[in-house]
Amino acid sequence: MASYQIRLFGDPVLTQRSSEVTDIDGKLVALAENMVLTMHDAHGLGLAAPQVGVAKRLFVYQLPDEDPVTIVNPVIAESRGEWEYEEGCLSIPGLFFPIVRPKEILLTGFDLQGNEISIEADEIEARCFQHELDHLDGRLLLSLLDKDQKKEAMRELRRRAESVGT
Q1: Which of 116, 123, 125, 132 is catalytic?
Q2: What average pLDDT does this structure show over 105-126?
Q3: Is the CB of residue 43 less than 8 Å from the CB of residue 94?
Q4: Do the domain assignments include residue 73?
Q5: Per the domain annotation, does 109 fall within a domain?
């Protein structure tokens, strides 16, 4: 198994809505296993398929002291409350922003055996699910920022791009 290169801000795959997974097969299982390796290499909590260039509706995540989990065709069925937390993204490395999201959610989807799953999540786990679902819908963290935050983030991203080009 090999890890993938994480797609970064500016890659068009990150702004496209991912398509539903229609078959859970060996190729999909291998994709998920390699995504877990990539997530570990990047020291991330979660990773969505578009972040490795695959426009399919699945993501992997791993909470501390737990096994990695893959969720296929996830849907947020319910949400409630609000919780502000400093959030970052592997596709926009090194930038973190205070983001308000629902504190609790009910996520439904399928596991890699094709079984329906339902997970009640709160705080960090709920935030992770919402963040990865944003990726599946072609939204990056930057879209959640207010005008001034976004302006500052774009300034920093341009500065980084210019320093790489020199």
Answers
A1: 132
A2: 97
A3: no
A4: yes
A5: yes
